[in-house]
Amino acid sequence: MTMTTAYAGKALGLLRIVSALLFIEHGTSKLVGFPPFTTGALPALGTLPWIGGVIELVGGLLVLLGFLSRPAAFILSGEMAVAYWMFHAPKSTFPINNGGDAAILFCFVFLYIAAAGAGDWSVDENLAGKRKA
Description:
Layout: H1 3-32, H2 48-65, H3 69-88, H4 95-98, H5 101-116, H6 123-132
């Protein structure tokens, strides 16, 4: 086993945890106003931003824990693709100009987690280990 493969699971676990923590912030900002949302107003119940906030909070928590991380990350990846094409891309062709660079990064990070799994320090990994024993 090389050093690269020895730490791959740990690096994936760190990527999952840090990405989820950053993503949860978007959900709490939309749903409870912390940290304060840039517009200052919380979205109305049932609107697209509110639904996005619920997906970000619940999905972010699942990915953070590494529980059902593959399906949760796949849904989060899709949410970010929709967010980019609906809200960012119409403003400009270039992500740096339309504010969509974070949406693109989240989309592909979550797509990777959906494909690769949760990595170390996850409920999914713990359950898989118990099934093998």
